[in-house]
Design a protein that fits this description.
alpha+beta; 5 strands; elongated
Length: 214
């Protein structure tokens, strides 16, 4: 067979192979980067009926808090816990120091009366007290619901405290100051907070204190 004829045959075969490669490699296969760039972003659902995704908060509790979210869509369990922990520390320190001005806006009248009784008794004895937290208190939200026109939330607090109690001056040894008494204790309590739904004041107040299991 003449060599010129063989060259023509090989050229035809090569052209056919290149054409097939173009058909395969020249097409887009699968998702391309520009496809992702054109795709609209997926936004989280919003509104009172949307699932609330809150890291560190139990899913069962989030479901139980649905009734409160239906009445108060802005309720956020994680933010509430942060605020409740701050209120807890402020109230504990305020009670120890007898700081009525700090306590008044954070307590219901009934709880304020109860705290006032304890503060007055300590003042009658002539004692003063300072308290410090040995560790940041633990706070767990156990209930969040709407009851009539009130929002109610129960928090379980675990804390380790050190109290420095200074006795009255008349118990001091002549020529020496009164020796303070140091007490360390662990506490486990349920604190129930509430606030009026729809009120202009969004702040929660402490409505009840009960012992809890450690």
């Amino acid at each position: 067979m003449p060599s010129q004829f063989l060259i023509v045959i090989f050229a035809v075969i090569a052209a056919f192979v290149l054409f097939q490669l173009y058909n395969v490699l020249g097409k887009k296969v699968g998702r391309q980067p520009q496809d992702d760039a054109k795709a609209p972003p997926v936004l989280p659902a919003t509104g009172p009926d949307a699932p609330l995704r809150t890291p560190g908060v139990d899913a069962t509790l989030l479901a139980a808090a649905a009734s409160l979210r239906a009445r108060d869509p802005a309720f956020d369990p994680a933010k509430f816990i942060d605020g409740a922990r701050q209120a807890y520390e402020t109230i504990v320190r305020g009670y120890a120091a007898g700081d009525r001005a700090a306590l008044k806006p954070l307590l219901t009248p009934a709880v304020l009366d109860s705290f006032e009784t304890g503060i007055a008794a300590r003042e009658t004895r002539g004692e003063t007290e300072q308290v410090e937290f040995l560790h940041p208190p633990r706070a767990d939200l156990e209930l969040a619901s709407a009851e009539g026109d009130r929002a109610v939330a129960k928090v379980r607090f675990l804390a380790e405290l050190r109290s420095k109690i200074v006795p009255p001056a008349d118990e001091a040894t002549p020529g020496a100051p009164a020796e303070p008494r140091i007490e360390e204790r662990r506490t486990a309590e349920h604190w129930t907070f509430e606030r009026s739904l729809g009120a202009s004041d969004p702040n929660w107040v402490l409505a009840r204190v009960e012992p809890a299991n450690a």
